[in-house]
Structure formats: structure tokens, C-alpha cells
Amino acid sequence: MADQNVPHNVENEQDPGASTQMFRAFVNEGQAEAASEPKVNGRVLAVVGGAVLLIAIIAAIAVL
What we know:
The chain is mainly alpha-helical.
């Protein structure tokens, strides 16, 4: 009965504890990178660019 808990082919098996630790390190690394991302995204840049373009068009019409 005690032989059932002993792995027979130890060389081919991976350590599940090591896999868990590696996964947790991977997840923590992803969270650290996500926190350091800038707050400005594409949508904000598009809105600001559109506002600048609109002001430029209004200014060009006012000059004529």
C-alpha cells in the first residue's frame, strides 16, 4: 500500500509546487507591468486630437 504514493518514474514528472510558484511569479510580474502603464490611452488621444482639429478649423474660418 505504501508503494502507491511513491512515483515510479521520477525523471519524467514535473514538480507541481515549482509550477505553481512559477505561475504566481508570472501573474505578479504581469500585475506590476500593468500598474506602470501610462494613464493616457488611444481614446483620450483621439478626443484631444479631434478637439485640436476642430479649433484649427474654426480658427481658419474666422480668419477668412
